[in-house]
Amino acid sequence: MNQEIQKKIKNLKKKTNSVILVHNYQLPEVQDIADFLGDSLDLAMKATKTNADNIIFCGVDFMAESAKILNPEKNVIIPDINAKCPMANMVNPNDLIKLKKENPDAMVVSYINTTAEIKTLSDICCTSANGKKVVESVSAKKIIFVPDRNLGAYIQRFVKDKELILWPGMCPIHHKIRKEELLKLKKEHPSAEILVHPECRPEVIDIADHALSTNGMVNYAKESEINEFIIGTEKDICYRLKNENPGKNFYPIKSAICPNMKKITLEKVLNSLETLEPRVKIKDEIMEKARKPLQRMMEVGQGD
Ligand code: SF4
Question: How far apart are the first and last CA of the chain?
């Protein structure tokens, strides 16, 4: 059944001049149809380089919105319009405007996991891959960092000459990962290294060997001489890790599942290719303002 749908997807993709961008947290069968598989920074960059007319974005809303903002002339299609990141909706524009007024000397760094409207109020965006580099690049000494307090606190560990005002948002999936679960896995697999995402709680990051973005994990696992890894992020990245490193073992936190990422299915991708819907629609004036912080982020580039 999956094979039949995958074949139809392949044919329609060619016929419609479409490209399929897939986030590392997508279902394994969706990862299998990717033209590009990556994290939000990687996919945002790929989106600007494609010659395709249609971008089928298998991820959540803010990622597809970023692709549209960076490629206003292309059709950006998200196979399920209800695939929304709850963290992106934890910042209310009015509250952010108020905080900006209270801190007139601060600049706003927003994690890419924000709505287009919040991006219009931001000086620069960042991802977990380049957050430290972006914060270091900002001229202000005071920074309002939205919305992920865990990522902000992690960046603050390295950037001592700036004060980060942390918004009280978090990713419900990463925030739920407990250090006890990781330590239990470590007891079962004592030779394994613990890799966690910087969206995790500080005490989880403290016991990890490395805190990395998802693409950071992919690169690290490939280059490392270690053969076993405990993975503290959304569990389906282990599908990609295992595919690319068949001789190595990856132990996921089985409960770390992002239900919004799983809303994209093969059937919905096929439907999107047949109808070229649902398209991401953002008002021109919002896109124009939201593009600047994204472009500034791209100029800063990848992290270390
Ligand atoms: S894993 Fe967390 S940050 Fe990523 S899309 Fe899901 S809820 Fe949002």
Answer: 42
Q: Are 303 and 130 in contact (CB under 8 A)?
A: yes
173 CA from centroid of ligand 1 (Å): 7
Structure tokens at 217: 């994990």
CA–CA gap between residue 259 and residue 254 (Å, rounded): 13
Looking at residues 111-137, what average pLDDT do you find?
96
CA of 167 to the centre of ligand 1 (A): 16
Q: What's the length of the chain? A: 304
| Full-model pTM | 0.94
Is any atom of ligand 1 closer than 6 Å to the C-beta of 87? yes
Sheet holding 210-211, edge to edge: 210-211, 193-196, 228-232, 249-252
Does the C-beta of 170 come closer than 6 Å to ligand 1? Answer: no
Separation between Cα atoms, residue 74 and residue 295, nearest integer Å: 17
What are the φ and ψ backbone dihedral angles of 146, each rounded to 5 degrees?
Answer: -125, 155
The residue whose C-alpha atom lies closest to atom 2 belonging to ligand 1 is: 171
Q: Could you tell me if 143 and 149 are in contact, meaning their C-beta atoms sit under 8 angstroms apart?
A: no
Given the CA of residue 171, which atom of ligand 1 is nearest to it?
A: 2
Nearest-CA residue for ligand 1 atom 6 is 258
46-50, 77-81, 181-185: range with lowest mean pLDDT: 46-50
Residue 52, Cβ neighbours under 10 Å: how many? 18
Domains and CATH numbers, the chain: 2-84+261-281 (3.40.50.10800), 87-170+285-300 (3.40.50.10800), 177-252 (3.40.50.10800)
Please state, in angstroms and rounded to a whole number, the distance separating the CA atoms of residues 274 and 243. Answer: 29
Does the CB atom of residue 113 touch ligand 1 within 6 A? yes
Q: Is the CB of 200 under 6 A from ligand 1?
A: no
> Quick one: pLDDT at residue 48?
86
